[in-house]
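User: Hello, can you help with two protein structures?

Assistant: Certainly.
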Amino acid sequence: MSRRGGKSSGPEPYDFRRPTKLSREHIRTLQIAYETFARQYATLLTTSLRAVSSISLISIEQLTYDEYISGLSSPTVVAMFSIEPLPGTAILEFSLSTAMACIDHMLGGPGGPQPQRPLSDIEMPLLHGLIDRTLGELRYAFEGIVALRPQMTTIEYNPQFAQAGAASDAVIVSSFEMRVGTEECVASICLPFGSIFPKLQGERGEGVLTDAQRAAREAAYRNVVAGLEGAPIEVSVRFQPVRMHPADLIGLQPGDVVPLAHTTSTPLAVVTADITFAHAVPGAQGNRMACLVVPSPQPGQRPTAVGQLGMMNRAEETNR
């Protein structure tokens, strides 16, 4: 039996509080992108550092942000970057000794054992430039999924100081075996799940649906629309607001008169959830108050509601 088959044949723990949402198709899509990134990244390191480098994908997992951060060693290089136009912050992480080896090679050194210390003011711009070119390769690899414009924001050495998300936020973590000369480490890329997952679905999710699944989805959509159309919504007809001092507002007593700034020629606003969706003029229907919906005034048009109110009153007299 192969090693891969033996590993997949055993039981695996499953957390019902956090069901896995990445399907096999989603992981395969990410695998293709990350394998492209690994090849491009290895070529970039080899040509830039003039040292034999290799990058290979190890795994793709769905974790919480707290689980990811807790599994990182300290100190390490945690490069946070934006993934515009998508929301959220992503992380590129690799060991501090590997970063020191890269800088040593860029400065013409042989590599070898490196000190464990923060980067100096001279070394930091060199690492920034290398990471910027690395994010360019990540942008190229993800072109088939989403057109990213990654931009590095900051670098931390302690993972606990990296504020890229809430502890319970779901993230997609990919791990890579990274080798630069004689230096080896496990690098990782952490992407926010909520930003990437809709792009992974896209048209791919529609293509794998069967006819029965598509019919069930359309029936569910019709049921939701029918339910929303029959749901009661609170609607109000409002005058234009009036500005008052807090002292005048507190001192209001029954019988006081508050002058309104609403002119008689201006229609009232028909509002629901603080959104004006129509205009109307007041009137009556029998012994009940009512309003007549009228065309909304266009920008620059002089509002008038007197004639429309007269039409409503005449119509009411005719009904009587």
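That covers the first. Now for the second protein you mentioned:
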Amino acid sequence: MIHILIPYDFSKMATHALDFVIKLSSQYSKLHLTLIHVVEYPLNTSMGTLGGGMDPLSDYQNQVYFRDLIEQKKLDLERIKDNLSSSSYSIEAQVVVGVIFREISQAIEELKPDLLVMGSSGASGWDEFLIGSTTEKIVRTAICPVLTIKGETDPLSLRKIVFASNFKEMDVGVASRIKTMQLLFDSEFYFVSVNTPGEFKTSREANASLEKFIAKFKFENIHTQIYNSISEESGILEFADDIGADLIAMTTHGRTGILHLLTGSIAEDVVNHSKRPVWTLKTPSSKA
């Protein structure tokens, strides 16, 4: 049984993510889906009105409106769940109240899904520089793989998948996840190592890392490529464009705080700027 968590805010992008998972059930019947919708607190609300112990709302009308909103979202989500009921998979739905990123992170910790699938239109400009998107934060911190859907996507259309890495880390968990994707999507896999001026490797060095990774984990039917570009992010996106890839897969280091502000994250940048779906997995040792 594969457990998939789907944050759902009733938006077009969230619907694309949900549709992707429903279509995936035609390829893999042992799926359990959990839809989670987060109702965010209005500016003047607090946990006290819901039994949390903070000061109650000063505006009674806002309290009533907020409670009605929660009940309506529960009904809306339950209706979607009932409409999607199928013998091909099991499905549950829950509405929680709080901050979106925090509640989704808590759901990941408690439910321990095998995969989180969420829709995103990306972030750019000041939004990206100052605060980043919810998707970006989840990619950075989630303990499970995250598949970010950028538009209407059919799992059967994922014929070419790029896995980008420096291939120095011999992580059995990452290798196992990539092999699972190979079986699930029955796609061509391209392992690419991006060469940049700042971290130049000779072709012999880069190929040696690739070949060692493939041999250690007994990968088969893999295309390999050393790709030169001005940065790792641009190299990954350019290579995906060049071969007409349908999905990008990569790991992320999951740095937070000042270290993240100073170094950034290749994986988060790719998620933000890619026009195709991106699969990410946080690993303690990965460089991203």
